[in-house]
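1st attempt posting a full record on here, be nice pls
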Amino acid sequence: MKPVRVFHVIPSLPEPLEPLREIAYNLRWAWDHDSIELFRRLDSDLWEASNHNPVQMLGRIDQMRLVAAAADDSFLAHLERVSGSFARRVQGQTSWFRRTHPSQDRLLVAYFSAEFGLTECLSIFAGGLGVLAGDHVKSASDLGVPLVAVGLLYQQGYFKQYLSQAGWQQEAYDKNDFHTMPLRPLAQPDGKAVTIEVQYPGRIVTARIWWAQAGRVPVYLLDTNIEANSPADREITGELYGGDNEMRIKQEILLGIGGYRALEAAHVSPTVYHMNEGHSAFLSLEHVRRLMERYHLSFAEARELASPSMIFTGHTPVEAGHDYFVPDLMDRYFTAYSQSLSLNRHDFLALGRRNSGNEQESFCMTVLALRMAASSNGVSKLHGLVSRQMWHDIWPGVPVDEVPIGHVTNGVHFRSWLSHDMNGLYDRYLGPQWRDAANGDLWKRIDTIPADELWRTHERRRERLVAFARRRLREQLKRRGAPPSELEAAEEVLDASALTIGFARRFATYKRATLLLHDIDRLARIVSDAKRPVQIIYAGKAHPRDGGGKELIQRIVALAREPVFRGHVVFLEDQDMAVSRYLVQGCDVWLNTPLRPLEASGTSGMKAAANGALNLSTLDGWWDEAWRAPRPESELIGWAIGNGEHYDDPAQQDQVEAEALYDLLERDVVPAFYETGPDRVPRRWISLMKGSLKNLCHTYNTHRMVREYTEQAYLPAFDRFSRLETDSAAAARELAAWMCKARTEWPQVRVESIEEGPSGEAKVGDLVCVRARLRLGALSPENVCVELYLGALDAGGEITQPACFPMRHTGSPGNGEHIFEASGVPCCRSGLQGYTVRVLPHHVNLAARFVPGLITWAS
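the predicted structure (as tokens):
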């Protein structure tokens, strides 16, 4: 029965407690220990039962508890302290951004992501991508970077995981009640909901806008589950990553195009757009379309104006992780839209194709983002390299190493993942400035922490992890209908003093969760050693359609039931942020075994490291970068499985790396943990902990990451866009006209000859000169950048580790020819060297060094 009218019931708070409402609706509480303790103090059981949701908690709490708290001087003093800190941090004017860039008051970044992992009670994320996006938002808030976030508000969010009696993953979906979450609907002054509209085939879809406040950063979320839409369209925001490819394109149209319109409806005017993964890449088209309307530009002109203001971050080196839509599906959803861009079908679909001439090629969202954004990056040094190799054909003729995809290595938001105990330890010995996270000199103070105090702090967290795992396991068994004997046994699994290994991540097959299970007999000897026991706690979800990932879970659960492993191996169901926090805060060793180079970055090991755990990982993602980074030889940071080798036979690779893993455990990890002195403190292990903390924490955090994005991407993008936008986009018009001429004339550009240059022999230290004769068609010498490309030759005769030297125009002898020369070029290395000459387009307003298709090499 549907209601005739609806109304919203809000918590009734006594006047002295009214500040709790504002605190509850600002997600800053999620990374502030004092705020969390304030809510726990009201009712700790209800805090847990509400899944750490203060809005729901305040709506359900017994009114007498609120009355008692309002008369409690101690509680009110706590509330005043939290409220004062909240006001200073959210409204203060002394943030890093304002101190460092005081004149940049027009910058506003719009950060688009399909998921945001801000807190466990706001279930609109699936895993690492969403948690990274949430940590990005939190650090932007802490640093005062002017940023707004845009995403989708899923009715069901990601699935809840539970296991059958046979250990097979099952999925259940809970519906989110947005009215009892730290969210508010965006409303007009008259109270009417703010909505936006997006054209879908034969109909208009309407979306309501909700917003969550995360410190200083508003997060706008779109919701199609409203009466204005058909039942099918109400499901567009029904489920995260659910449905088929057509549902995916509907969601990505809403995220990109609808999200752009949502900002307009909220009267927010970004100057820079950041696409977190390709899901939101359609926003680039809407950005161009709106600029076409605003300044009466052609598509080419608006594209040149829009491109510098867009940043794209890719997150996956796995081909299957990128979204592709077949041409027929694109035709169905974008025929009318492409006409609004004044593009024919071929030119429109070419924006998302590697090979624009292949009419059968699917439309790729990553290709669209790479073509439209002037700045693109991977999320670790290794991932940047892999991305350049994956997408180099978009820039034909450009050497792989120079493909314009850089990297900004991921990080984690420390205060969201640090235990209360470690937080206090850092306050005492590092001082309050440790929260800035990125100060390397400050983290050297780790050496001042007494070894026994660091160890006791960590032991407390391991004890809490073991207690949590026992409770969680008992609840799992009870749900499955396990007999009383199994429930009693769950109370005794794990040992609060034993070496504890954690493995918690998405159960994709390339992450190889069962590499540790490769030799069951050897593993049994390791875990069951009476004097030096080892225990392993697993957690993680497989994608609902990933049978291989589910089989890995089933295998681990079956192993945990075998007598020799019972009590030593545990699988915790339904990993969420709360489970993850217990694990990264309490484990001694964080295990990570992806198949190189399929892990773009990974961040769980960074969270564990910040809590004092040691990483044991294959050299992939961030760990490859961290392991190879310069550091004092005496300061070990953990262990590397292998040296980054690649084997053509995956089975052989598994065999070799499993053997290496067992060797490390037996020879290094276990002995270091159990080697103690008379005070029972493992000094060698603590030395490893301190080496990890000193060398990793100042780099692998989102404060450093967001600063890099701000100074290397956001501010340069804003400056470029501002120059082009001035005077009704006059510079963009001129650039577009110039680009049209450059593309037309480029087939005429060639290097006729290299007339002078070194040959035979030269000595190290000699200065050489190279002169080349070029034809430029109708382009002038000022329209090109000519470079000498010089380097050592490999066994195949290819130039390696090249250096580029600019060549200056020295004359035009006639007949359309031009002379360019590089002089005073030093010979820095002995051995066989080679050189060539290349020509690139040059314009003062070009946002990217390389333009796809516009590069000419001497033949």
